[in-house]
From TrEMBL:
Superkingdom: Bacteria
Parts of the chain that traverse the membrane: none
Nudix hydrolase domain residues: 16-149
Protein name: NUDIX hydrolase
A molecular function (GO) term: hydrolase activity
Cofactor(s) recorded in Swiss-Prot or TrEMBL: Mg(2+)
Keyword annotations of the record: Hydrolase
CDD domains associated with the record: NUDIX_Hydrolase
Protein's UniProt keywords contain Hydrolase: yes
Protein backbone atom coordinates (compact mmCIF):
# COMPACT_ATOMS: atom_id res chain seq x y z
CA UNK A 1 0.00 0.00 0.00
CA UNK A 2 1.32 3.47 -0.83
CA UNK A 3 2.23 5.99 1.85
CA UNK A 4 -0.55 8.29 0.62
CA UNK A 5 -3.18 5.56 1.03
CA UNK A 6 -1.87 4.59 4.47
CA UNK A 7 -2.00 8.23 5.52
CA UNK A 8 -5.57 8.61 4.22
CA UNK A 9 -6.59 5.55 6.25
CA UNK A 10 -5.36 7.37 9.38
CA UNK A 11 -6.65 10.92 8.77
CA UNK A 12 -9.74 10.36 6.65
CA UNK A 13 -10.65 13.24 4.37
CA UNK A 14 -8.71 16.01 6.16
CA UNK A 15 -6.72 18.33 3.91
CA UNK A 16 -3.16 17.07 3.49
CA UNK A 17 0.13 18.49 2.26
CA UNK A 18 1.65 15.97 -0.17
CA UNK A 19 5.06 16.09 -1.87
CA UNK A 20 5.54 14.76 -5.37
CA UNK A 21 7.35 15.19 -8.66
CA UNK A 22 6.40 15.67 -12.30
CA UNK A 23 8.56 15.63 -15.41
CA UNK A 24 8.41 17.53 -18.68
CA UNK A 25 9.72 14.76 -20.93
CA UNK A 26 10.54 16.37 -24.27
CA UNK A 27 12.27 15.87 -27.58
CA UNK A 28 14.80 18.19 -29.19
CA UNK A 29 11.91 19.58 -31.29
CA UNK A 30 10.02 20.30 -28.04
CA UNK A 31 7.34 17.68 -28.45
CA UNK A 32 6.03 17.02 -24.94
CA UNK A 33 5.03 13.60 -23.62
CA UNK A 34 1.61 13.70 -22.01
CA UNK A 35 -0.36 11.01 -20.23
CA UNK A 36 -4.13 10.71 -20.37
CA UNK A 37 -5.39 9.54 -16.99
CA UNK A 38 -8.63 7.87 -16.02
CA UNK A 39 -10.17 11.22 -15.05
CA UNK A 40 -10.02 12.22 -18.75
CA UNK A 41 -7.36 14.89 -18.31
CA UNK A 42 -3.96 14.98 -19.95
CA UNK A 43 -0.97 15.72 -17.78
CA UNK A 44 2.72 15.28 -17.25
CA UNK A 45 3.93 11.97 -15.89
CA UNK A 46 4.62 12.05 -12.18
CA UNK A 47 3.11 11.38 -8.82
CA UNK A 48 3.41 11.36 -5.07
CA UNK A 49 6.53 10.62 -3.05
CA UNK A 50 6.89 7.41 -1.07
CA UNK A 51 8.56 7.23 2.36
CA UNK A 52 12.34 7.45 2.07
CA UNK A 53 12.38 8.70 -1.53
CA UNK A 54 13.99 11.86 -2.79
CA UNK A 55 12.13 14.07 -5.28
CA UNK A 56 14.51 12.82 -8.01
CA UNK A 57 13.80 9.18 -7.12
CA UNK A 58 10.06 9.91 -7.13
CA UNK A 59 10.31 11.47 -10.61
CA UNK A 60 12.28 8.55 -12.02
CA UNK A 61 10.02 5.88 -10.46
CA UNK A 62 6.76 7.53 -11.47
CA UNK A 63 7.84 8.14 -15.07
CA UNK A 64 9.03 4.55 -15.43
CA UNK A 65 5.80 3.15 -13.88
CA UNK A 66 3.52 5.36 -15.98
CA UNK A 67 5.37 5.41 -19.30
CA UNK A 68 7.99 2.66 -19.33
CA UNK A 69 10.73 5.24 -19.94
CA UNK A 70 13.94 5.29 -17.92
CA UNK A 71 15.23 8.78 -17.18
CA UNK A 72 19.02 9.10 -17.41
CA UNK A 73 20.22 10.95 -14.32
CA UNK A 74 22.40 13.30 -16.36
CA UNK A 75 19.35 14.37 -18.44
CA UNK A 76 17.05 15.02 -15.46
CA UNK A 77 17.11 18.71 -14.46
CA UNK A 78 15.14 20.61 -11.81
CA UNK A 79 12.92 23.24 -13.44
CA UNK A 80 11.27 24.54 -10.27
CA UNK A 81 9.40 23.79 -7.04
CA UNK A 82 5.72 24.72 -6.83
CA UNK A 83 3.45 25.00 -3.78
CA UNK A 84 0.79 27.18 -2.21
CA UNK A 85 -2.85 28.08 -2.78
CA UNK A 86 -2.63 27.58 -6.55
CA UNK A 87 -1.79 23.90 -6.02
CA UNK A 88 -4.88 22.87 -4.11
CA UNK A 89 -6.22 19.59 -5.50
CA UNK A 90 -9.25 17.43 -4.90
CA UNK A 91 -8.68 13.77 -5.68
CA UNK A 92 -11.33 12.02 -7.81
CA UNK A 93 -12.96 10.77 -4.60
CA UNK A 94 -13.12 14.34 -3.22
CA UNK A 95 -10.23 14.11 -0.74
CA UNK A 96 -8.45 17.50 -0.57
CA UNK A 97 -4.72 18.17 -0.55
CA UNK A 98 -2.11 20.75 -1.38
CA UNK A 99 0.58 19.50 -3.73
CA UNK A 100 4.23 20.41 -3.28
CA UNK A 101 5.70 19.53 -6.66
CA UNK A 102 9.28 19.47 -7.83
CA UNK A 103 9.14 19.82 -11.59
CA UNK A 104 11.91 18.34 -13.71
CA UNK A 105 12.73 18.39 -17.40
CA UNK A 106 14.25 15.46 -19.26
CA UNK A 107 15.29 15.05 -22.87
CA UNK A 108 16.44 11.78 -24.42
CA UNK A 109 14.80 9.28 -22.05
CA UNK A 110 15.69 5.64 -22.55
CA UNK A 111 13.31 2.77 -23.22
CA UNK A 112 10.07 2.30 -25.11
CA UNK A 113 6.71 3.85 -24.27
CA UNK A 114 4.37 1.47 -22.47
CA UNK A 115 0.77 2.12 -21.42
CA UNK A 116 0.67 -0.84 -19.05
CA UNK A 117 0.14 1.26 -15.90
CA UNK A 118 -3.44 1.25 -14.59
CA UNK A 119 -3.37 5.08 -14.29
CA UNK A 120 -2.48 5.53 -17.97
CA UNK A 121 -5.20 5.46 -20.62
CA UNK A 122 -2.96 6.84 -23.37
CA UNK A 123 0.50 8.32 -23.93
CA UNK A 124 1.11 10.78 -26.74
CA UNK A 125 3.70 13.32 -27.89
CA UNK A 126 2.27 16.81 -28.44
CA UNK A 127 3.96 19.84 -29.98
CA UNK A 128 4.41 22.48 -27.29
CA UNK A 129 2.38 24.81 -29.51
CA UNK A 130 -0.58 22.39 -29.81
CA UNK A 131 -1.34 21.01 -26.35
CA UNK A 132 -4.75 19.40 -25.68
CA UNK A 133 -7.55 21.46 -24.14
CA UNK A 134 -8.19 18.82 -21.44
CA UNK A 135 -4.86 19.58 -19.74
CA UNK A 136 -4.65 19.64 -15.93
CA UNK A 137 -4.58 23.31 -14.87
CA UNK A 138 -1.34 23.06 -12.86
CA UNK A 139 0.38 21.22 -15.72
CA UNK A 140 -0.84 23.83 -18.18
CA UNK A 141 0.81 26.42 -15.93
CA UNK A 142 4.05 24.38 -15.77
CA UNK A 143 4.18 24.09 -19.56
CA UNK A 144 3.45 27.79 -19.99
CA UNK A 145 6.44 28.61 -17.76
CA UNK A 146 8.58 26.09 -19.65
CA UNK A 147 7.65 27.67 -22.98
CA UNK A 148 8.25 31.20 -21.63
CA UNK A 149 11.70 30.25 -20.31
CA UNK A 150 12.59 28.55 -23.60
CA UNK A 151 11.51 31.56 -25.68
CA UNK A 152 13.51 33.91 -23.42
CA UNK A 153 16.58 31.71 -23.80
CA UNK A 154 16.13 31.50 -27.57
CA UNK A 155 15.60 27.75 -27.38
CA UNK A 156 11.96 27.72 -28.51
CA UNK A 157 10.29 29.69 -31.30
CA UNK A 158 7.32 31.69 -30.04
Amino acid sequence: MSYFKELRDQVGSKTLLLPGASVIVHTEADDILLQKRDDGHWGLPGGLMEVGESFRETARREVEEETGLKLPDEELHVFGVFSGEDYYVEAPNGDPYYAVTTLYTCMNPGGDLSESDEETLELRWFPLTALPQELRPSHKHFLSLYKQKGVQAGLIDS
